[in-house]
Design a protein that fits this description.
four-stranded antiparallel beta sheet; 14 strands; about 50% helix; about 10% strand; binds arginine
Length: about 575
């Protein structure tokens, strides 16, 4: 089923063509939600935008559009306001019919995208032998949400974990382990990630201060790259070790990912450099091979380079991304590639995309987008650290959220004099804790930094996961209290919208598909959060104002349907954010 907005746009397109001829076909009719309810539900500014083109006054253009609009079934008589705004109000009977139509639909009226695309979402992507940090957590949560929405819209999504599993860090680590803990290089499970991270730090110190060590480490990297068995085996063990640790976090967060790390592209790196050379794009600078970027300069005004081969002959992060981009287009047939990383990498991606375009690696019909996000800050507004000043471990962070959610629940149970099983308490704590962390991240405009606060994210009021879960639970409570089976409300249910709160809620429910189309385009999950938050608020207003179980029969059924539709919209919307609902809490 097409959304109200979509239907209105079509009606406007037809009216424009009838009124002004075929050159109007394809003109954006500029229909949007009304900025204020006193202007109705939707509004179009198209008349003003056409004055030059048509050489007429906007009010007279608006008049002609309105005369040709075929919307009597859908809207009250359109109003022309001010210089030529067209204001539209949807008729309650039409809203009722639209709700009845989505009531039977599992997708709640959300259409699939036509045609579906092959989309790669490159997200999470931690580095082997290093701890996964809060930046990776953001990438994981945002990337997963984007992937879920694209999947729901019917796209063929490949979720790729571009882990940092290649490069100098392994030379260092292997050399150091050969000295201090050789078993780790031959026996599986000899280390855990905590050891690996601290060993990595020590190895780095040796690397920086000892020339001989540095030399050996470099040789190990060469051995690794040329596929020497011993080194490869050690490398693989180290990767497995990290992978297991990462998996623990992914399982807790319910994240599905396909690992295809940097090492995968190793065989294609020299080809990238050769092709850049053939295109005449390569220049040498201080022994390194680079492509100088257009439009990127430093303070002194010198052009900035994208380095693709270092002076020691090694390839780097950018070379790998160029190889990955080519592979994803040629072998994965991607139509769109989405990269989710912190905004600190914006220049890197801008450089990679520019070079890919200039080198003809990137056809016109393929879209590449960097989806940047800001930093996670502590409550003091500085970069998030533990009390002792160390980087926060993700495992600890999730534990704490779950722990606090559990405590909050226990004190609430005490207040309400309710008793629940340990199993219940345990489960609610887990779900609410993880949901809260995810929602706190997704509900921010991702481009800004955000302050991490357990108290705020677990608050029952405000734009938080618990508030949303409550609205859902409230509806399930109605069904329990009234012994209602929402799937079986009877034949020929009539939805009746009379009260203002019912109309407002109904109109909001019908906007879900517009929001999803918007998130699919702009890749801003907070838009969906805002929508769901508004939905919860509107439902609560409806619930405060309109009796449900006590209402007379036909009204009662109608209100139950409205409640059920709200709950289903919440559940679907939250699931697209990667957030699980609870039936009781
Ligand atoms: N491993 C990188 C990091 O931790 C992120 C990789 C992002 N993806 C990419 N294709 N470069 O910063």
């Amino acid at each position: 089923m097409n959304s109200l907005l979509y239907q209105l746009k079509n009606h406007f397109n037809e009216a424009l063509v009838t009124a002004f001829g075929t050159e109007m076909a394809g003109v954006d009719p500029l229909v949007v939600l009304a900025s204020n309810p006193k202007f109705g539900d939707y509004q179009s500014n198209v008349a003003m935008s056409l004055t030059k083109k048509l050489g007429e006054k906007p009010r007279s253009i608006a008049q002609k559009i309105v005369e040709n609009l075929n919307i009597t079934e859908m809207c009250e008589a359109p109003e022309i306001a001010g210089p030529g705004f067209i204001n539209l109000t949807i008729k309650p009977a039409y809203l009722e019919a639209q709700l009845s139509a989505i009531e039977k639909d599992d997708r709640l009226g959300v259409e699939t995208a036509q045609p579906p695309q092959k989309v790669i979402v490159d997200f999470s992507s931690p580095n082997i032998a290093k701890e996964m940090h809060v930046g990776h957590l953001r990438s994981t949560i945002i990337g997963d949400c984007i992937a879920r929405i694209l999947e729901f819209r019917g796209h063929d999504v490949l979720r790729l974990n571009h882990v940092g599993d290649w490069g100098t860090q392994f030379g260092m680590l292997i050399t150091y382990l050969r000295e201090v803990y050789p078993e780790a290089l031959t026996t599986a499970d000899a280390l855990d990630l905590g050891d690996l991270v601290s060993l990595y730090k020590k190895a780095k110190i040796r690397f920086d201060e000892d020339e001989k060590f540095k030399e050996t480490a470099r040789e190990e990297v060469v051995k690794l790259q040329s596929g020497e068995e011993d080194t490869r085996h050690a490398w693989k063990l180290l990767c497995d070790q990290s992978r297991r640790e990462f998996q623990v976090i992914y399982d807790r967060l319910d994240i599905k990912l396909n690992e295809r790390g940097e090492s995968f592209y190793n065989p294609f790196l020299s080809g990238v450099v050769e092709d850049l050379e053939k295109q005449g794009l390569l220049e040498e600078s201080d022994g390194a091979m680079c492509v100088f970027l257009e439009g990127f300069t430093n303070k002194a005004g010198d052009r900035l380079p994208l380095i693709v081969q270092k002076s020691d002959g090694g390839y780097n992060y950018a070379t790998t991304d160029l190889a990955a981009l080519r592979y994803r287009i040629a072998s994965d047939s991607a139509d769109r590639i989405v990269y989710v990383t912190d905004s600190g990498q914006s220049n890197h991606f801008a450089g990679v995309f520019q070079v890919a375009k200039r080198a003809d690696f990137l056809p016109e019909n393929v879209e590449v987008v960097h989806v940047p996000f800001g930093l996670v800050l502590g409550e003091d507004g500085k970069k998030l650290k533990t009390r002792s000043g160390e980087t926060v471990k993700l495992r600890d962070l999730l534990d704490e959220a779950v722990d606090r959610a559990g405590k909050d629940l226990k004190s609430r149970l005490l207040e309400e004099d309710r008793s629940e099983s340990d199993e219940f308490i345990d489960n609610v704590g887990k779900v609410v804790g993880i949901d809260a962390v995810k929602y706190a991240d997704l509900s921010q405009n991702r481009t800004s930094d955000y302050k991490f606060s357990y108290d705020k994210m677990l608050d029952l009021k405000g734009n938080t996961a618990p508030y949303m879960l409550y609205a859902y639970v409230r509806v399930q409570g109605i069904s329990r209290k009234g012994n209602i089976d929402f799937d079986n409300l009877g034949e020929d249910i009539k939805i009746i919208l009379q009260e203002e709160e019912e109309l407002v809620l109904a109109k909001h429910i019908l906007q879900l598909s517009d929001i999803l189309v918007e998130v699919e385009r702009d890749l801003l999950p907070n838009r969906l959060c805002d929508y769901l938050y508004e939905l919860s608020k509107k439902y609560n207003q409806f619930y405060d104002r309109c009796t449900v179980l006590q209402a007379e029969d036909t009204v009662k059924t109608s209100r139950l349907v409205l409640s059920d539709l709200t709950a289903r919209t919440l559940k679907l919307g939250l699931s697209l954010l990667g957030i699980q609902v609870l039936e009781r809490m």
